[in-house]
Amino acid sequence: MNAGCHGVEWRDTVESILVVDAAGVDRVVPAAEAGFGYRRSDLGHVVVLETTVALQSADPARLEEETEALYRWRRDGTPFNQPCCGSVFRNPVLPADWPEGHPRTSGQCIEATGLKGLRIGAVEVSPMHANYFVNTGGGTAADVTALIAEVQRRVVERWGVTLVPEVKVLGPDGTV
């Protein structure tokens, strides 16, 4: 995965990754060989054990201010304190002639389709941020996958936009 937000991605700081494969063999993967892309990497077939990052020094007061602003954004705009997996869908790649005023992000597409609060089983589209699904208690992987499919169906029907899941759902046998 290559998580990111506010114009910064995980790959911007990674130097190397210690991984172990299905045979139990561990190795160090340099960041340049990790295959980072938008919300993805080529590391889906291994388990990450450790990551070495390179951080840049900056003014502590500025960092504290920036950290507080990001925390407020997350606290006020996402269900960060509820059981969820973070963003469910990648942001869509829209055509150059996409009309002004139409939704541009996955969350905006879901919200503009009227799906906030839609529930399947015990999993619902968050009323706070439409690109987050919240487990309201006892939710199952089947609930999540059914809700993903229903949201995709309704958004493509309304906007012609196919939402691609950012999350990976593992089956009982460990397959994605």
Q: Can you put this structure into words, describing what you see?
A:
- The protein has 176 residues and is α+β, with helices and mostly antiparallel strands.
- It folds into two domains: 4-53, Uridine Diphospho-n-acetylenolpyruvylglucosamine Reductase, domain 3, CATH 3.30.465; 77-159, Alpha-Beta Complex (Uridine Diphospho-n-acetylenolpyruvylglucosamine Reductase, domain 1).
- It is 25% helix and 20% strand.
- The chain contains three helices and nine strands, in the order βββββαβαβββα.
- The longest helix is centred in the C-terminal third of the chain and has 19 residues, at 141-159.
Question: Can you give me a brief rundown of this structure?
Answer:
With 176 residues, the protein is of the alpha+beta class. The protein is built from three helices and nine strands, in the order βββββαβαβββα. The chain has two domains: 4-53, Uridine Diphospho-n-acetylenolpyruvylglucosamine Reductase, domain 3 (2-Layer Sandwich); 77-159, Alpha-Beta Complex (Uridine Diphospho-n-acetylenolpyruvylglucosamine Reductase, domain 1), CATH 3.90.78.
